[in-house]
Automatic annotation (TrEMBL):
Domain Hcy-binding: 9-323
GO biological process, one term: S-methylmethionine cycle
Keywords of the record: Metal-binding, Methyltransferase, Transferase, Zinc
Function: Catalyzes methyl transfer from S-methylmethionine (SMM) to adenosyl-L-homocysteine (AdoMet). SMM degradation (by HMT-1, HMT-2 and HMT-3) and biosynthesis (by MMT1) constitute the SMM cycle in plants, which is probably required to achieve short term control of AdoMet level.
Cross-referenced Pfam families: S-methyl_trans
MF terms in GO: S-adenosylmethionine-homocysteine S-methyltransferase activity; zinc ion binding
Annotated organism of origin: Arabidopsis suecica (Swedish thale-cress)
Binding residues for Zn(2+): 241, 308-309
The protein, known as: Homocysteine-binding domain
UniProt-listed SUPFAM superfamilies: Homocysteine S-methyltransferase
PANTHER family named in the record: HOMOCYSTEINE S-METHYLTRANSFERASE 1, ZGC:172121
Matching InterPro entries: BHMT-like, HCY_dom, HCY_dom_sf, Hcy_S-methyltransferase
Note on cofactor: Binds 1 zinc ion per subunit.
Origin organism lineage: Eukaryota, Viridiplantae, Streptophyta, Embryophyta, Tracheophyta
Cofactor: Zn(2+)
Length: 326
């Protein structure tokens, strides 16, 4: 019942947006633009320790730009990751909780501010708690390879995700955003965990893709979506942090494989070098191309569209302008 009510919130938002809501853009990218040093095993989540005020500022900037959904700073925030920095379990859990609180505070403050402006065109945004893949935690680029090795079983992945999921759910986000999932095993682990933990918050699960056809592991999306399609916890499935050139083909493919809503938030097209820990130049979309393509992606069936790494508030503003031009 609670799950249905919360899903209805998202459905209403999508309706208010004219059929497609705007997800925010590269969170880590915008932290870096403001000078944050995130070349760290915790990547963007290092800011939860070092500069929580900056996290709130970045959320505000994406809200100003027109994001209807803000994704929290917890992508690479994990309890084992924090423990290896010398933090205690209590401190680690409170940082996870804080990631949700910071986004909720930004959303509430922004909404209070714009509500006073007559004729504004914003919607009250929703907060999606980011849950990065096991590969993100490994910090070796394996969210783009999908190869976790023989020793990584379904149970190991569930154990990895379990406590963080519990803490994030407890913190009360509107949605859960599983990001850069590179293979079927992890997708299945996430779905089973949502069920085992009786989670009452709607979730999306996004895969990466490095060839524009399949998941990074080489598994087809038909295989990968199979456990997701059966789950009541999953509201949307899609792609994040893959090149924007792949999105059109991938939406067409997903539309044939699922009745779930489709969510896409590609990166700029630059390619992550997991060893050197840097983005390599490649064929990229600028903001003008995002503006051109957003309505096309919507018309092909995407219900949630945004940007991922190397996109900025100006990209989100371009997408929002395009989608909300009525
Ligand atoms: C989406 S990637 C750019 C995130 C960072 C990666 N997990 C790493 O730590 O190298
Ligand atoms: N939402 C993440 C990126 C996922 S690839 C972040 O920017 O921290
Ligand atoms: Zn990304």
């Amino acid at each position: 019942m609670v799950l249905e009510k919360k899903s209805a919130l998202l459905e209403d938002l999508i309706k208010k947006c004219g059929g497609c809501a705007v997800v925010d853009g590269g969170f880590a990218t915008q932290l870096e633009i403001h000078g944050a040093a995130i070349n760290d095993p915790l990547w963007s989540a290092v800011s939860l320790i070092k500069n929580p005020e900056l996290i709130k500022r970045v959320h505000m900037e994406y809200l100003e730009a027109g994001a209807d959904i803000v994704v929290t700073s917890s992508y690479q925030a994990t309890i084992p990751g924090f423990l290896s920095r010398g933090l205690s379990i209590e401190e680690s859990e409170s940082l996870l909780q804080k990631s949700v609180e910071l986004a909720v505070e930004a959303r509430d403050r922004f909404w209070e501010k714009v509500s006073k402006v007559s004729g504004h065109s914003y919607n009250r945004a929703l907060v999606a708690a980011s849950i990065g893949s096991y590969g993100a935690y490994l910090a070796d680029g394996s969210e783009y390879s999908g190869h976790y090795g023989e020793n990584v079983s379904l149970d190991k992945l569930k154990d990895f995700h379990r406590r963080r999921l519990q803490v994030l759910v407890e913190a009360g986000p509107d949605l859960l955003a599983f990001e850069t999932i590179p293979n079927k095993l992890e997708a299945q682990a996430c779905v089973e965990l949502l069920e085992e933990e009786k989670v009452q918050i709607p979730a999306w699960i996004c895969f990466t893709s490095v060839d524009g056809e399949k998941a990074p592991s080489g598994e087809s999306f038909e295989e990968c979506l199979e456990p997701l399609n059966k789950s009541n916890n999953i509201y949307a499935v899609g792609i994040n942090c893959a090149p924007p050139q792949f999105i059109e083909n991938l939406i067409r493919k997903f539309a044939k494989l699922t009745e779930k809503a489709i969510v896409v938030y590609p990166n700029s097209g630059e390619v992550w070098d997991g060893k050197a820990k840097q983005w390599l130049p490649s064929q990229c979309f600028g903001d003008d191309e995002f503006e051109m393509f957003a309505t096309k992606w919507r018309d092909l069936g995407a219900k949630l569209i945004g940007g991922c790494c190397r996109t900025t508030p100006s990209t989100i503003n371009a997408i929002s302008r395009d989608l909300k031009r009525r």
